[in-house]
Known about the structure:
Elements: H1 2-14, H2 22-35, H3 60-64, H4 68-85, H5 89-102, H6 107-119, H7 123-136, H8 141-153, H9 157-170, H10 177-188, H11 192-205, H12 210-222, H13 226-239, H14 244-257, H15 260-274, H16 278-290, H17 294-306, H18 312-324, H19 328-341, H20 346-358, H21 362-369, H22 380-392, H23 396-409, H24 414-426, H25 430-443, H26 448-461, H27 465-478, H28 483-495, H29 499-512, H30 517-529, H31 533-546, H32 551-561
Amino acid sequence: MEIINTFICLLNQLLSNTLINMSKKINLIISLLIFSNCVQKPQIVVEDPIEIDEVHFKSNEEIRNKPNENVKAIGHFMDGQLFMSQGNYSMAILEFQDALELDPEAATIIVSMAECYWKLGKTKKSEELLFIALNLEPDDYEAREMLANQYIFQNKHDKAIEQYRVLAESSDEGDSKYYIALAKLVLSQNNISESISLFIKAYEKDKSRIDILEEAANLSLRSRQLEKARSLYKQLIDIDKNNAYYLSTYIDLIVMTGNYESGITALESLIAIEGETTERLSQLGILYYKMENIVRAKPLFKKLINMNHFDATIMHFLSNIYIEQSILDSARTVANQIIFHHPSDPRGYLDAALAELNNENPLGAINILEPVDEEFHNEFSIQYLLGSSYQQLEEYDKATIVLRQSLKIYPESRGARHTLAIASDALNYWNESDSLYEGLIATDANDVQALNNYSYSLVERNIHLNKALSMATKAIELEPQNAAYLDTIGWIYYKMNNIEKALSFIRRSVELENDNAVVLEHLGDVLIANNQIEEAIIYYLRALDLDKDNQILQQKAGIVAN
Length: 562
């Protein structure tokens, strides 16, 4: 056995140009599987090969009694290899059978015979022979590869994966090819996560194969496993710090995953490599903005605009910074630049309108948004902001129309639902407002604004006072120092004839906020009910100072004064 194995090794070297090197075939075979839908089986040669069951395997005892036959086995094996190189697979099989009769435990001969049967299209016999070879030598990688690849060509991917798992788990240190093949096979079955893990294992086997790690990173990115992709690209950067592609992709992933600080570090490295480009400065500025580092973001945005880089996002962020800093003239200027350079981008109109609203000028916001209402009829932000502006001007009819449209676009918007509920309540569209408030509370039991506004609507209608009190009580528990909420619960107690509690809550409301005419009037009404007439006059008059045209207040003050 040792003699024939030695000769076989020598023979393999001599016949290196003709023997099949399976280790070099693996990537080609797998690639054909993964990237082609037209994999063809080997062309069947029209011959009459010897049937496998005709092969006679001699016993070891027989071989030991005939040592000279080992040399003869090598001769038959070499002749078989020659016939294989000529494409005469039937004659090769005859020679291999003769070799096996002389050396029945030579797995290499059996594998060669299996390949011949495969070339002749006899896949079942090829498979049977390969199993015989593996029973003789379980660690015969060539036999197992051939078996796995035959399964691939037969679209028996599960069986192929089974064989490649064995190969991968038993492969030597530094041998990554089996993990790569297995990763591609698993990917063909759309098992993306396992495929990524296998590519990583392949890289761990062979750290020189950075391309394998990049494959895992790209696959993670394509499958939207962003955190994993970010981690893998960080590894790639650690290996190749000057690779602009790795850095750029990593930065994009940083932005997507919210790890802004690391993104800034990577960007600064990339800028050091590429120089200051508008793209990189934009990314850097945006990261600073998202980190709420306005000190660093603002000068970068201004620099970009001075470089004639009129990117809508950059200008939008700069306009928002100016609004946050109450530099409203500058905010309008930048917003107008967005409108000029990007007339179809709604953010320019939104920013301009927000500047007006922050200047307590809802009419100015309406004048900006109304002319583009039709153009942006399906743009939620435009519709919502326009509706809110109408609501602030108490143009409730217009507000309800526009706000309903905004909710058709984005039904989940709580802000739009709140604003529409207020406008509907003002128009006595109580079925609509009640439904909106009920929906808001049902989806968030701690929506303190909905709890307060709904309870105030009920008390103003003098209905369901116990329900109103329950909601108002919860609102106070959530925000005990809110002046508006204290007034609401006090007004409910007033309607329920609990003057003592009413007076306590509304006095606290006035102490916290004494410039609300409605609350001052409420306090006056409660004081009247408590027979504190002189003090009531004081609060009615203070309310009139804030709301001079309120005839009801005038009447109340006049009646009390007389």
